[in-house]
Design goal:
326 residues, alpha/beta, 13 helices, nucleotide-binding, ATP binding, P-loop_NTPase
Length: 326
């Protein structure tokens, strides 16, 4: 049984102009210790998927269908009190900006000790010992002294290391990381991702990495899910999806990476923009931007085609896979 099994998840946002569907029947699973990437442009539904797993959707957002089974329990059926026993305990989350996560008026040590005592019946001394140990694991120098520091006294990279240490405090079985390096300098991003990868391996923790960067996904994750307009358009083993992408959208994302173009030439880009939730095209939602579009693509939404474990939502998937598509 998978550690986390999300099946046919639907997330809606009711508005005065109608109901907007942010996620429309997406499914994915994470095994114990496995690392899964969820990628796509802004507006694809990546962060909504992460918040739905933790039941952190902002009202009036709601889970309107599907199931989220974690460690054998459907999280969509839990009460608020039961969910608090899961969130921050069995499932931890790392957000984009550490300054939005850490309390600016409390020391690092106070925040870490309070987090532990909220989920464990332990003494202050034991909580402090565990906190110092976790700070050491994320390569923070003099961790015992850093316990007395305030967030503003640390660099952005150091703050994100603290956030990772807090995520590991309760020994969760799953960490959800939502664009964890977006707010950091490029030189620091690789260090943080390498650190997260090493810690997930050493602690046997499952990871869901939310990002727009397929280059990061290829280095960190074992499987990947590509979202577009709230639907899964491609998923499978990361190495297979990255080296042999089939869906035109996945191919466009990979072609847009800086290293894919000629030196000095303009970067490749996917023409057009992600559709807004109240104006999703009929048929395949990617059809207005697709270079391989047919009339049938505008008529009906294609199902996910299973290409030997590599799932692709495109009526021309088999042609594209074999290179026969014009």
């Amino acid at each position: 049984m998978a550690l986390l099994d999300v099946h046919d998840l639907v997330v809606e946002f009711p508005t005065r102009h109608g109901t907007l569907t942010a996620l429309n029947g997406i499914s994915f699973a994470v095994d114990k210790g496995e690392r899964l990437g969820i990628v796509g442009e802004s507006g694809a539904g990546k962060s909504v998927a992460a918040f739905a797993v933790l039941n952190l959707l902002t009202r009036p957002g709601r889970i309107a269908g599907g199931s989220i089974v974690f460690e054998g329990r459907d999280l969509t059926t839990l009460s608020r009190a039961q969910m608090r026993g899961v969130r921050g305990n069995r499932i931890s989350m790392i957000f984009q900006d550490p300054m939005m996560t850490l309390n600016p008026v409390l020391t690092i040590g106070t925040q870490m000790v309070e987090t532990l005592k909220a989920h464990r019946d332990i003494s202050d001394a034991e909580a402090k010992r565990i906190a110092i140990q976790r700070l050491g694991e994320v390569k923070i120098p003099s961790p015992d002294k850093r316990m007395a520091s305030y967030p503003h006294e640390l660099s952005g990279g150091m703050r994100q290391r603290v956030v990772i240490a807090i995520a590991l405090l309760t020994e969760p079985s799953l960490i959800v990381a939502d664009e964890p390096t977006t707010a950091l300098d490029v030189t620091i991003q690789a260090e943080i991702m390498s650190l997260m990868l090493a810690l997930c391996k050493s602690h046997g923790v499952g990871l869901i990495l939310i990002t727009h960067d397929l280059a990061v996904v290829s280095q960190v994750t074992q499987r990947v899910v590509v979202l577009y307009a709230g639907r899964v358009v491609e998923s499978g083993r990361t190495d297979r999806v990255v080296h042999n992408p089939v869906h035109p959208y996945t191919r466009g994302l990979l072609a847009a990476l800086p290293g894919e173009g000629e030196p000095g030439a303009r970067l490749n880009q996917i023409r057009g923009n992600m559709p807004s939730l109240n104006a999703i095209p009929s048929g395949c939602p990617f059809n207005p931007r697709c270079d391989h579009v047919l009339d049938d693509c505008r008529a009906a939404l294609p199902p996910l085609d299973d290409l030997d474990g590599h799932l692709v939502r495109c009526i021309r998937a088999r042609e594209l896979m074999t290179g026969r598509a014009a």
